[in-house]
Structure formats: C-alpha cells, structure tokens
C-alpha cells in the first residue's frame, strides 16, 4: 500500500519552516501532496496560483512531492488524493491548541484520516509567513527565512 500524505497550508509565502516539515514528511511517506489552500478569508499577499508556483519551485528537489491548489474541505481533498494522512508542523502551544481542534473535527468528518504532527526545530519555532511578510514590507532581507524563489518574489512586491 502506498503511503500518501497531504501537507496543507496557505503558504503565503512558503518559509524555510514549512519546507523543513515538507522535507521531513517526504522522508516518511511514499507520496506527499502539498495542498495550497485558497484561504481567501486571510487576504493573502500572493494569489493562489503564485503561492502554488513558489511551493513547486521550493520543493522541486523532492521527487515524491507534488503541489496542488485546493478550495474545498481538507478531508474531501484528502479523499480525492486517496491520502490517509495529514502532516502538520507545530511551533508552539498555540499551534497545538488550534491543530488539536482541527484534528478532532477532521476525525469526525473522516475517521480513517490520521494526522501526524511534526515539531519544528528551534531555529523555526518563531518563524511564520506573517512575520516574513511584515519584515519584507519594511524592506528587510528575508533570505535567511525563505527559499530563494520566495525572497525574489517578495522583493518585487
């Protein structure tokens, strides 16, 4: 049986912390789909297709990783992909509280869908897309926090 996982997120933009989780998921699973959520309510800086393109560029070195945009319930997307595992990163206790609730809801919607949480290493525990966007908005060099393709895209915004 092929072990398929979904690693979902808004990825606005993808950070090195996200990339760390994706790489670690790819080392555990046969196939990983990075699911880029539309998340219109978050008012993303980058349009959905641009976010998906940046994630594709950042993960092109991972042969068992694919990237797709989605705009539906995560459990429905997982069913479409025949994935039985969701992989999420956790940075702090606040992430855990939110993800614990989401896991409970996903279990109610699809009991066969498991969630695996991967702890962020210390160097990424503080890192978030919103922090990167704010730093970039002030002209700060964000190259240590994001893949090169994202640093270039942020410089153009």
Fold blueprint:
Layout: E1 4-9, H1 16-28, E2 31-37, H2 48-59, E3 65-70, H3 74-80, E4 85-90, H4 93-109, E5 114-119, H5 129-137, H6 148-156
Parallel strand pairs: 1-2, 1-4, 2-3, 4-5
Describe the fold and architecture.
This protein has 157 residues and is α/β, with parallel strands linked by helices. Helix content is 43%, strand content 20%. The protein has six helices and five strands, in the order E-H-E-H-E-H-E-H-E-H-H. The chain has helices spanning 16-28, 48-59, 74-80, 93-109, 129-137, 148-156, and strands at residues 4-9, 31-37, 65-70, 85-90, 114-119. The longest helix has 17 residues, at 93-109. It is globular. It starts with a strand and ends with a helix. The model has no long low-confidence stretch (mean pLDDT 95).
Q: Total strand count, please?
A: 5
Q: Mean pLDDT across all residues, rounded?
A: 95
User: How many DSSP helices?
Assistant: 6
What order do the helices and strands follow? EHEHEHEHEHH
Low-pLDDT windows of residues:
none
Largest sheet: 5 strands, parallel
Work out the helicity level.
40-55%
> Which strand order do you get reading across the main beta sheet?
3-2-1-4-5
Distance between the termini: 44 Å
Rg, alpha carbons: 15 Å
Which term fits the overall shape? globular
């Amino acid at each position: 049986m092929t072990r398929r996982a979904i690693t979902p997120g808004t990825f606005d933009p993808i950070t090195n912390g996200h990339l760390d989780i994706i790489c670690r998921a790819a080392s555990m699973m046969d196939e990983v789909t990075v699911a880029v959520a539309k998340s219109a309510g978050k008012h993303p800086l980058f349009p959905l297709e641009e976010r998906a393109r940046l994630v594709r560029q950042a993960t092109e070195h991972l042969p068992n990783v694919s990237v797709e945009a989605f705009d539906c319930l995560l459990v429905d997307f997982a069913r479409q992909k025949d994935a039985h595992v969701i992989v999420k990163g956790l940075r702090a206790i606040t992430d855990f509280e939110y993800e614990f609730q989401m896991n409970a809801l996903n279990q109610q919607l699809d009991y066969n869908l498991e969630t695996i949480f991967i702890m962020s290493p210390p160097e990424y525990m503080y890192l978030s897309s919103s922090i990167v966007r704010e730093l970039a908005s002030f002209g700060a060099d964000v190259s240590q926090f994001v893949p090169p393709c994202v640093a270039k895209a942020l410089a153009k915004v």
